[in-house]
Amino acid sequence: MTYSVKVLDHYENPRNVGSFGKEEEGVATGMVGAPACGDVMKLQIKVGKGGVIEDAKFKTYGCGSAIASSSLVTEWVKGRTIDQALDIKNTQIAEELALPPVKIHCSILAEDAIKAAVADYKKKHSDHAAG
Amino acid sequence: MFAPIYFDHNATTPADPAVIDAMLPYLSTQFGNASSRHEYGRAARRAIDEARNRVATALGAHATEVVFTSGGSEANNLLIKGATACLKPGLLAVSAIEHPCVIKPAEQLARRGWTLARVAVDAAGRIDVDDYAAAMAHKPRLVSLMLANNETGVIQDIEALAGRARAAGAWFHTDAVQAVGKLPVDFRRLNAAGVHALTLSGHKIGGPKGAAALIVDKRVELEPLIAGGGHERGLRSGTENVAAIVGLGVACQLAAERQAALAVDLGQLRGKLERGLLGLGATLFGQAADRLSNTVYFAFAGIDGETLVGQLDRAGYAVASGAACSSANPEPSHVLRAMGVAPDLARSAVRVSLGRGNTGGQIEGFLGTLQLTVGRLQQLTAMAV
Amino acid sequence: MLKLPIYLDYSATTPVDPRVAEKMIPYLVEKFGNPASRSHSFGWEAEAAIEEAREEVARLVNADPKEIVWTSGATESNNLALKGAAQFYAGKGRHLITMKTEHKAVLDTCRELERQGFTVTYLDVMENGLLDIDVFKAALRPDTILVSAMFVNNEIGVIQPIAEIGEICRSKGVLLHVDAAQATGKVVIDLEALKVDLMSFSAHKTYGPKGIGALYVRRKPRVRLTAQMHGGGHERGFRSGTLPTHQIVGMGEAFRLARLEMGAENERIRMLRDRLLKGVSDIDEVYVNGDLERRVPHNLNASFAYVEGESLLMAIKDLAVSSGSACTSASLEPSYVLRALGREDELAHSSIRFTLGRFTTAEEIDYAIRLLHDKIGRLRELSPLWEMVQEGVDLSTVQWAAH
Question: Hey, are the CB atoms on A38 and C306 less than 8 Å from each other?
Fold first, then answer.
């Protein structure tokens, strides 16, 4: 397997690795994938006023491309609103990282992680609203 | 210790120094298994890819059409058994003068529901046009005809023959093991004429033993002979013989570069040899046909070929009494039998096959030795009678 | 000075021993004759070299040289043994038995035989990778004609109870084929004692060249095969095709060296392997795959839980190792061998095979240990699974989103 320069860079120097405290205000978590499939991504977003994502962190169990895809999306979601974050498509991730066809699923997983995190945020938010 | 003079290049050739140089790293520091994903493996994979490109370029094929095998016999077995396994049993046509590694698989298939047509040749060793037309009329599913014969050197008009097979709807394979390096062989051109697959072998062209290739049009569906691991696009499993494949690549490239000049040089030597042989009263086989410029197949009536070859070996000349592969077989050559040569004369057959490094001086020396040897044997024969 | 990457993949292939290469080269240059040429000294010289090599191969495994058939490698040997015997003895029965942990060359050939109308039982192995003899006995049927069992597993290095399997096969009149590609030079093989009928060998796993192997075909009691490659009738009709003299000479020399040196060499390699084992055992949640006792000294296969295999390989790219077998590692599937041991997929995914050999040094092993400690620590920092486990989550209770 040959990796692109960008994949290698994200793999060697992953951005925004870590976790937020569970009880921190505005934090939502998306966990996608399964160990049996070889990839699990945990993407956390910290949403501030006006639904803007102020910070993001990730942890990924997976191949270099999966790690790079999730590292990349933590950079991309920051500063966007949660709805703008949903505009990030796997094809953009794959293109940015020059993923080979067999690794496209990593970019799909990263897109799914964003959706899951946003859904978690919306769920928590609506729970609050209802409660 | 004097080195014998080698006149048996159709049996095998010494590896070219450039071939050995290219191979050596893969017998020492570059030892990876091409299936491994680490750097050792990737280096081996790159070497195989490069060799595949060299073979493809030299033969006018696309790299994806090249399947590496352990030898010409395997490549011929793969094509004949592999292609027929994907077809409904029907008619299979091969010539009567094919190498055993085409004839034997064909005979196997004949025991498994296929009908085998053995296309006849004329007295000069060329495919008999009428017999071939008759076989084509029965719509064979697969035809295999060698481009040039290993014993006589006779060259078939493969493009015309393939065209007729295509008109009959058959896959067409040619065993070009003896032709590559001695004739211009261009797979694209042959393919356009109706040839779907071609066999070549490394050790006949200054490459190593243990590597050969089947060049095959991707439309031909093949069942692999050797399963397990899915190497060579699933057509040939087994850890690739990297060093030999690298050697094959270089050998093909050199063969293509040298072919035209070598054919001229060897043609001149052969002319000299044939004139001498005729002067000594030899019979030449296939003389009326187009032949490889390196091959002379001759006989001295009444002198056993095996005996003559043995005497020549003692005198320092390595020649053959028949195809190397069937030399263990005391039967006279099936090629000569197919050409209608009387068994007695066939038993006298001797083959000289020239190659790079042979010289006019060697031919002169050989003719001198031959004259003495034949004279002595003729006297012995005369006394025995 | 350490040369990187460090080669720890001797089960994928070995370097050609320089002594072997030196013996091979003259057969590419001046001794280039076709061994089938019967009419001149070039041919005789090549033939003599081939027969000498045949004797060396036979000697390593205590067989008669007449029982050794040259092939292009163990894959071809396995194909010839299985298809050749199954087709020849099809009249007696059409049932075969093998194991789920066999090499692809055996498994794929069995699949092909199934398409030809044979039935194949693929036996599970125990958690330690070894065949359960009772399970094997229960699988034998009146129409069983052939059993194929590997001597040493290529991924986990476990040594199967070939002697016991052989006794059972012989008593039932069933042929036994053994894939010994990974066994030569590592375990003592005595074909006079073992009741094995067919055995596959490879040169390039034992410091010989690629492209050459052999099949042992027992003469007493005589085993017959349907040839798979037809032509000039080489190798007494078992396998046609010009013999590659230099490669055969290389295999003969490699097997001769193995016979002379394996005793001392295996002890040295065992010490290094145990040093590696001790070094990685200090890391949390490391699992050794396969039995540690009934195992060749060259192999360590371990799973590093909660890190993914491919990223692990990438992290330790200074080590040339493999995850899964070399032949299948182009795919992303977890190793079928580890799955057959009952390892869950994530542990199968995170397995690394370290295989040591003749040229491995203590310095290399120490480097490998340091690198593993460092990189596994880093990857676990990145791993959400590791984090969950540290928090006390039982991963088996987690409902994973399918994708």
Answer: no
